[in-house]
Prior knowledge:
The protein is of the alpha/beta class and 268 residues long. The protein is built from 7 helices and 7 strands.
Amino acid sequence: MSAGISTDHATLAEPKFLLVMTATVAPSASAQIRRSSPAERLEDYKRALRFWLKYPHTAAERILFLENSGADLSELRAIAENENPMQREVEFLSLPAHEIPAGTNYGYAEMQALDEGLTLSRLRPATTHMIKTTGRLTFPALGKALDQIARSDSTPLELMIDCHKLGLFRRGYDARTQLFVCSHRFYDRELRGSNREMNATDVWLLEHLIYSKVIPFKGLPGYHLRFPCNIEPVGYFGFKNRRYDSPRGAFARGVRAMLRVVAPGYWF
Length: 268
């Protein structure tokens, strides 16, 4: 076991979650994404916020909305105030845009926003765990997955993320970063400041960086490097401007769901 890996499990048995929605309403041209219209993206964020405000699970009891392009958040604030049937606590933070260093990509700025936003958040001290979500997307099966882990593992949850094998003609593995869950202490110990390790060769994508940070914990109690069930995103790809639930992805979704049952150790 690596000397840097802690197996201390003092985290509370019943996590208190802070659902963090990362957002860039007006992406820069260097982001090279197709779903780049600020108007379209704002509608995505509004739709997702409404979803989480009504989500019937403790995963969304507290919501932190982190935006890093200086956009006007008044419409989102109005939704949190006027369309909040469960009276959930919602915090909005506008963070300064950061230049993405050469050799890295949008993931550098996203991790920087998390580092800064979690430090500034007034809601974080009242919680034990972070649920990081790409703010334009929703994940209806999130609560189901958290409940399955709680039933199957008596060890306090430290990490839930989905690692997978890259495509047929690509070698290696990475971690899906649209959604992951971790204790605050895991984030502070293992992920905070890690974007400085991104480079132009083997760790230029956020998915590569996060995979390199979590893979040493594979197999340890409380660390789940595969979702226990499919947690499919609902919304639009940023890079392709195509819906995640389009028919062309139905086969892959079905295969993943089947393998989680019949071969949970196979990463696909």
